[in-house]
């Protein structure tokens, strides 16, 4: 691997230039590297032969004695020039230098006469094309305009602005354009300043806004904006994307022109000029785009490398610019052609050379070019070759064993076999690119290798290299052989019952099926030997409906894939439609219209029931409220009547029991008739000294009544005035008629009802 000083590289490359008609032109080219170095020149890709008009100097530069844009024979000295340098290790080509003739056209825009009132703004413009860009100066009354006057602004594109006009500004103006090709004068224009300064209000107005510009980095951009109005508007600048314009390299010319020096790509954007009326939000705007281009330049240069024979060499070349540059690779000055072992990736930024040999040893160049310029970088590939390496392995053969296996055999090299430490078998699908190649290592005593896990019906290429500790031999001859074909694998099969007479067979496409032409579908009743089918289906079909089946039997469904080699193994499924029929009988399909009507009827019934229930609750509440009120009144009357002297205990107990019943009956009677029973009525119904039989009857009735009363009714009587003493009654005698005691007290009916 040689040092940097040994690399063939350019110290000075030719640059773009503008030549003057009939004047000499020199294009410089200086190269370093190991001598001897030969330098030659090309114009538009054609070799330049030394002549009286153009020849090469001793230092390698090209000298053109009399540059001519157009010669008598129709040829021209304009064009793209590059120099080529070559030594023992290779050849490099310089960047292309664009040479143009200096020219100047006639003015295509001349200044125009103008009449402007005092205090206003005057603008004159003239335009002319030329190479290089002409410098335009202004004259007033045949004298150069005084640029020290702050009211006079000269813009690079041939514009003269005069603000705050005065009477002395009147005069005759014209412009002068100058470059290395010529000097030209425009027509004259008269400026007349009329009247005095007007005080009439005028809305802001932009006379001239910014133009769309396309420039290169490091140039200067001038965005013009001239506005009028009364009062004089304030001019401001902004970017449409909201980003700040910044302050470095920014300058305002005159009353509102924006100048940006030393342009960068970041200055690209749309610029907005705004004319605002002072103290208000009244404004007018105009906008123009600025596009800044950047010549191609390298972010990463390719590096010279040394690699042994048979290995892979990779060069990387990354360039940037605006617009993004295109990358081209050269090999010893010629456009690099890609092949099976030479590949370009990542938009040509990566060059890969597989299985290099001595023929690949050369100088490789990366050319990056866009509309703003071009650049180049080079690197050398050195192929290492050690003396005494083995010769290529001999007699490489490949034999097909099966659809996925090939056996490769070879013989040892003819020369330098003592230092061999092993062999490497290189394997690749014949249709794949070289970078898809893979290797298998083999011991030095083995001369065959069984390659497995291959794809059926596929061609493969094989070659062998012998390796030593100092490097590898050259590759053997390449042999290509194909694997055998095989039938497809078993497909996966799923059965879905659609209805009582139809099932759907579905399967999934899979790469495991291999190369297949389609599917065959069979089905039968399990008790029969004869299949229905085959139903032939295309390879892209994944489902099939089997119809008109008998729901009372079980069916067998079989699916297989086939190709030109035959039928593959089948997948079998069994299906019964009986369960579907039974489910249909047990769960008949719903009558949606009938269900809807039933739902409507049920809903109506629920609503009516709710209304009835609410009404009942309201009546019950009213009933309880009024009943409670009557009960309180009854208790008050009873208290007054019970204030008489005490009666005998036996009578008191019976009377108290009867009173409870009477109170309930009295309340019921009051609810029905609206009348109260007095004490005489109570005594008439329940005498104080009844007979033994009547007393027993009364006690029994009172007990039954007392059991039916709640605590609230009992507690409404004061305890000091009324008490209940429970006594164990004697067994009640049976009536002569065999009836129960309750049946013998017909007068107690109302109380029982209560």
Automatic annotation (TrEMBL):
InterPro entries: FN3_dom, FN3_sf, Ig-like_dom, Ig-like_dom_sf, Ig-like_fold, Ig_I-set, Ig_sub, Ig_sub2. One of its GO terms (cellular component) is membrane. Residues 392-486, 487-583 form the Fibronectin type-III domain. It is found in: Membrane. It comes from Aegithalos caudatus. Residues 644-654 have a biased composition (Polar residues). Pfam families: fn3, I-set, Ig_3. It is a single-pass membrane protein. One of its GO terms (biological process) is cell-cell adhesion. The gene is Igdcc3. The chain crosses the membrane at residues 606-626. Keywords: Disulfide bond, Glycoprotein, Immunoglobulin domain, Membrane, Repeat, Signal, Transmembrane, Transmembrane helix. This is Immunoglobulin superfamily DCC subclass member 3.
């Amino acid at each position: 691997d040689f040092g940097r000083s040994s690399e063939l590289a350019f110290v000075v490359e030719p640059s773009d230039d503008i030549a003057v008609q009939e004047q000499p032109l020199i294009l410089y080219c200086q190269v370093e590297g190991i001598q001897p170095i030969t330098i030659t020149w090309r114009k538009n890709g054609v070799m330049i032969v030394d002549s009286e008009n153009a020849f090469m100097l001793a230092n390698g530069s090209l000298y053109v004695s009399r540059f001519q844009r157009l010669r008598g024979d129709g040829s021209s000295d304009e064009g793209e020039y590059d120099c080529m340098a070559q030594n023992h290790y290779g050849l490099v080509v310089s960047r292309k230098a664009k040479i143009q003739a200096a020219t100047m056209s006639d003015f295509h825009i001349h200044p125009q006469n103008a009449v402007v009132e005092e205090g206003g703004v005057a603008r004159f413009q003239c335009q002319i094309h030329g190479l290089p860009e002409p410098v335009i100066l202004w004259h007033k009354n045949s004298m150069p305009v005084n640029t020290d006057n702050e009211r006079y602004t000269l813009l690079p594109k041939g514009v003269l602005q005069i603000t705050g006009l005065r009477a002395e500004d009147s005069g005759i103006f014209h412009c002068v354009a100058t470059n290395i090709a010529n000097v030209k004068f425009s027509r004259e224009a008269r400026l007349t300043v009329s009247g005095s300064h007007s005080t009439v209000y005028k809305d802001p107005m932009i006379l001239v806004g910014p133009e769309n510009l396309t420039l290169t980095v490091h140039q200067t951009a001038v965005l013009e904006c001239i506005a009028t109005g009364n009062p004089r508007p304030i001019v401001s600048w902004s970017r449409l994307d909201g980003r700040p314009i910044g302050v470095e390299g920014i300058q305002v010319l005159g009353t509102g022109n924006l100048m940006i020096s030393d342009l960068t790509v970041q200055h690209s954007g749309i610029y907005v000029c705004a004319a605002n009326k002072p103290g208000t939000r009244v404004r007018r705007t105009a906008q123009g785009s600025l596009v800044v281009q950047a010549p191609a330049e390298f972010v990463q240069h390719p590096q010279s490398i040394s690699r042994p024979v048979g290995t892979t060499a990779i060069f990387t070349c990354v360039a940037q610019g605006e617009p993004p540059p295109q990358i081209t690779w050269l090999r010893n000055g010629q456009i690099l052609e890609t092949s099976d072992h030479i590949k370009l990736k990542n938009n040509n930024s990566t060059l890969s050379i597989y299985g290099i040999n001595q023929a690949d040893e050369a100088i490789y160049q990366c050319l990056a070019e866009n509309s703003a310029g071009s650049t180049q970088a080079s690197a050398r590939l050195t192929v290492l070759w050690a003396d005494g390496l083995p010769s290529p392995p001999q007699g490489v053969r490949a034999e097909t064993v099966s659809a996925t296996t090939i056996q490769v055999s070879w013989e040892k090299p003819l020369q330098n076999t003592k230092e061999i430490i092993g062999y490497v078998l290189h394997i690749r699908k014949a249709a794949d690119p070289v970078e898809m190649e893979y290797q298998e290592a083999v011991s030095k005593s083995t001369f065959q290798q069984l390659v497995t896990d291959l794809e059926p019906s596929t061609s493969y290429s094989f070659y062998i290299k012998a390796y030593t500790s100092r490097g590898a031999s050259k590759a053997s001859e390449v042999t290509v052989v194909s694997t055998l074909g095989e039938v497809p694998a078993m497909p996966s099969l799923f059965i879905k019952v659609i209805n009582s007479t139809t099932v759907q067979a579905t399967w999934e496409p899979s790469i495991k099926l291999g190369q297949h032409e389609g599917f065959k579908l069979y089905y039968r009743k399990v008790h029969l030997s004869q299949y229905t089918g085959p139903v032939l289906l295309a390879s892209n079909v994944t489902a099939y409906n089997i119809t008109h089946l008998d729901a009372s039997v079980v069916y067998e469904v079989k699916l297989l894939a086939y190709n030109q080699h035959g039928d593959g193994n089948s997948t079998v499924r069994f299906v019964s439609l009986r369960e579907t029929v039974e489910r249909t009988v047990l769960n008949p399909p719903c009558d949606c219209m009938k269900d809807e009507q039933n739902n409507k009827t049920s809903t109506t019934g629920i609503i009516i029931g709710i209304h009835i229930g609410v009404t009942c609750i309201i009546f019950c509440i009213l009933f309880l409220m009024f009943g409670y009120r009557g009960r309180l009144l009854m208790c008050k009357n009873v208290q007054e009547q019970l204030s008489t002297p005490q009666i005998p205990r036996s009578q008191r107990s019976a009377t108290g029991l009867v009173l409870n019943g009477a109170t309930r009956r009295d309340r019921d009677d009051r609810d029905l008739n609206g009348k109260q029973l007095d004490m005489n009525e109570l005594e008439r119904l329940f005498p104080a000294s009844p007979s033994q039989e009547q007393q027993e009857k009364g006690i029994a009735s009172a007990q039954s009544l007392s059991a039916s009363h709640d605590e609230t009714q009992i507690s409404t009587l004061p305890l000091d005035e009324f008490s209940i003493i429970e006594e164990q009654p004697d067994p009640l005698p049976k009536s002569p008629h065999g009836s129960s005691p309750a049946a013998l007290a017909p007068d107690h009916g109302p109380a029982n009802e209560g």
